[in-house]
Amino acid sequence: MPDINISQPISITMEVVEVDDYLPSLRMLVKCHIEHPTGFFTYQATDIWFDCSQWDEFVRILSQLEAKIEVEAILVDMSECLELKISNVHNQLHFNFSCKELNVGEGLTKINFSCQIDFEILSLIKREYSEFPKWW
Domain of life here (predicted)? Predict the structure, then answer.
């Protein structure tokens, strides 16, 4: 069962695979499913590491967004392959998910999804990250 389960505006799940006490961090299995008019995109990565202090900062700023403060909450993995960003600009919430992966051999694959969200969806996202069972 995923530790983080977001269903709107796109499906994102995150499941803890490993933790590191030396540099407080966690490795996660991340899955993303994005539907579009002619089908869908699916992304899955098994080796996505997050710095725990960066995770805490993301949750802290989500609370500021919920209070309608104009800020930007960004969660980026330690390799900078995956980014989840939610921002408030003139009281409009913007959601952005992006990932990039080097292909086997040559090339680079990128997925980027952006849309506007409302404060109800922000609250659901914030709850998922705020209720995440922290060990640090």
Answer: Bacteria
Give the pair of three-digit tokens for residue 122: 């922000």
Q: What share of the chain is helix, strand, coil (3-state, %, to 5)?
A: 20, 55, 25
Q: Could you give all domains of the chain from N- to C-terminal order, each with its CATH number?
A: 3-131 (2.30.31)
pTM, 2 dp = 0.94
11-19, Cβ contacts within 8 angstroms, sequence gap of 24 or more: 12/84, 12/97, 14/48, 17/46, 19/135
pLDDT along the chain (136 residues), means of 10: 95 98 96 97 97 98 96 98 97 97 88 98 98 93
State which amino acid sits at residue 66.
Answer: E
Cα Dmax for the chain? 46
